[in-house]
Write a structure and sequence with these properties.
The protein is mostly helical. It folds into four domains: 102 residues, no CATH class; 121 residues, Rossmann fold (3-Layer(aba) Sandwich), CATH 3.40.50; 34 residues; 33 residues, no CATH class. 36% of the residues lie in helices and 8% in strands. The chain has ten helices and eight strands. Strand 7, helix 9 and strand 8 form a beta-alpha-beta unit. The radius of gyration is 25 Å and the shape is globular. The structure holds iron/sulfur cluster.
């Protein structure tokens, strides 16, 4: 591993005994240069990742990372382009459709930043034009246009977008197979929201039109839905009336009126206070509350020896408005794209 890592000489250390917040934010005096440097490094990485991935695979005996990987694409007429953990389920669905005789494959994007536009384009049979920089979607559309114009015997091809898994909704193999069948028959609309319940959406749209009020849509949908989540909204201490609490999963309402053994950590006067008051989350922010619950549990489990990594998002923005911080434990922010590898690179002293 040492061949792939610099020598261990940390310049900054996260120490629970001496907490500091380390973020990526800088002031206007250096921001542009910092961002441009990051851009240059991304371009360098695009060049270097393939050879490093090869060397890594040779050293450890298994593939890891790289820019992208292709699966059963050699003779594919339909290719799914996706990234993330859903790729495993997509490959299962592709295998099933292959057994049914359909020529389907997958290109899995392994590196999102830098995004491998050139390689992805080549994998999809759409090489770059000399001297042109294009995004992937633009390139594929241009390629389809060129093929139609040139009367390419393969046909122009078409590009479809599928949005799935929003809010953590499961992406099932069955739904993917239905989608792949439709794609193979060229019956997939240009934009598809997988497993979207159109009846619920239309009902809520009708309600908003009738009442001339916009919300609260999530509660209306959940409360009138026969789906699995309706019960989540019920307070466990008020299940006779079925009263709905706005903060799903929070037991904070009426906490101090409960018996001791029913109270959550929020009612404990000795709870750790890893994320301090005074941050700038919206009132009643569920993310702030969720973070405090998670931090309380983690602080207990680690006996206070905790450091936090935070991807870009509301939690990072509202807790560390430059140059302030609400974190009372060591905290490190990095970009969304590096939230997974970042803690993997940590080493305990
Ligand atoms: S997650 Fe962000 S936008 Fe949503 S309530 Fe919290 S601070 Fe506000």
């Amino acid at each position: 591993m040492d061949a792939f890592l610099p020598p261990y000489e940390p310049r900054q250390v996260l120490d629970p005994a001496d907490p500091v917040s380390i973020g990526a934010m800088v002031g206007p005096e250096a921001f542009e240069e910092v961002r441009y440097l990051a851009h240059l490094r991304q371009l360098d990485a695009l060049e270097r990742i393939p050879s490093l991935a090869e060397a890594f695979a040779e050293a450890v005996g298994r593939p890891s990372g790289g820019l992208l990987h292709a699966y059963r694409t050699a003779d594919a007429e339909t290719i799914v382009v996706a990234l993330g953990s859903v790729l495993g389920t997509i490959k299962d669905a592709v295998d099933a459709r292959r057994e049914a005789g359909e020529r389907i494959g997958v290109v899995g994007i392994t590196a999102f930043r830098p995004f491998p536009v050139m390689r992805a384009g080549r994998s999809l049979g759409c090489p770059a034009r000399r001297g042109r920089r294009e995004g992937l979607q633009h390139r594929l559309r241009r390629c389809a246009f060129d093929r139609r114009r040139d009367g390419d015997p393969r046909g122009p091809g078409s590009l479809r977008t599928v949005i799935a898994g929003l809010g953590g909704r499961p992406i099932t193999r069955r739904s993917l197979e239905v989608m792949l069948v439709a794609a193979g028959q060229d019956q997939l609309p240009p934009l598809t929201f997988l497993d979207l319940d159109h009846a619920i959406v239309e009902r809520e749209r009708g309600r908003m039109t009738r009442t001339r009020r916009s919300g609260p849509s999530a509660e209306n949908i959940l409360a009138t839905s026969d789906r699995r989540v309706a019960d989540w909204l019920r307070s466990p201490y008020d299940d006779t009336s079925g009263a709905l609490l706005y903060q799903v999963g929070s037991f904070a309402a009426g906490n101090r009126l409960l018996d001791d053994d029913q109270r959550s950590v929020q009612a404990d006067p000795n709870r750790s206070n890893s994320l301090d008051s005074g941050h700038r989350a919206c009132q009643g922010c569920g993310e702030a509350l969720g973070a405090r619950y998670a931090l309380d549990a983690a602080m207990r489990a680690t006996h206070g020896q905790l450091v936090a990594v935070n991807a870009t998002g509301c939690l990072e923005v509202f807790s560390t408005p430059y140059p302030e911080t609400s974190w009372r434990i060591p905290w490190l922010h990095s970009s969304s794209a590096t939230r997974r590898p970042l803690p993997l690179g940590w080493r305990l002293r």
